[in-house]
Amino acid sequence: MTDTQLKNLINFCFNFSRDMNMPLLGSDATYILEKWEKYIGMTPIKNDALCISELLKTQKLFTEHKIKRDATYDKIEVLILWHHRWKDEYDEVKEILYFLLVINSNEYPKWTPRRLRDEFIKMLGDPEKINDYPYNFLHDLVKQQIQNWLNIPLINRDYNLCLLID
After folding, report:
1. Burial annotation 103-129 (CB, 10 A radius, 16+ → b, else e)
2. At 166, is the secondary structure helix, strand, or coil?
3. Considering the entire predicted model, what is its pTM?
4. Secondary structure class of 87 (helix, strand, coil)
5. What are phi and psi of 162, to 5 degrees?
6. CB 162 within 8 Å of CB 117
7. How many angstroms separate the CA atoms of 164 and 16, rounded?
8. 3-state DSSP call for residue 101?
9. Do the Cβ atoms of 51 and 79 come closer than 8 Å?
10. Is it the case that residue 109 has pLDDT exceeding 60?
11. Where exactly are the structural domains of the chain?
12. What are the Cα distances from residue 3, in Å, to 114, 116, 134, 141, 163?
């Protein structure tokens, strides 16, 4: 993974961070896809478990068996809401949305470059396929937050290790 690819991944994640007041449910699916294409530019690995029929089955199991609501159930509910809002567009963005939902389940100071990369690999695919040209159209406040985050010694060290290890 190159420096540019890692920066693009981080920029994409911060762009859709809840801490940047980016309400994903309020965003248009085409906006998310546009930013995905500019920053990432690859087709994510398909995950059939995120299809609406599978989500509804899982939600029903929780209800029928009186399973205590947990983080998994909450994510399922949010994905169902996204499906109701975006209908057909949901299928195009479901893997990306799930990735954003997972990384936003922790506040960004808990993020590390390696964790973002590892979650990306697990859910979306090979980070070597991320666009290797910079896309620098972030709001100045988001840029400043990223810079503040990268200035944290542990984060900076992890960033540099990500570049060395890959």
Report:
1. bbeeebeebbbbebbebbeebbbebee
2. coil
3. 0.89
4. coil
5. -55, -40
6. yes
7. 27
8. helix
9. no
10. no
11. 3-165
12. 13, 14, 10, 22, 7
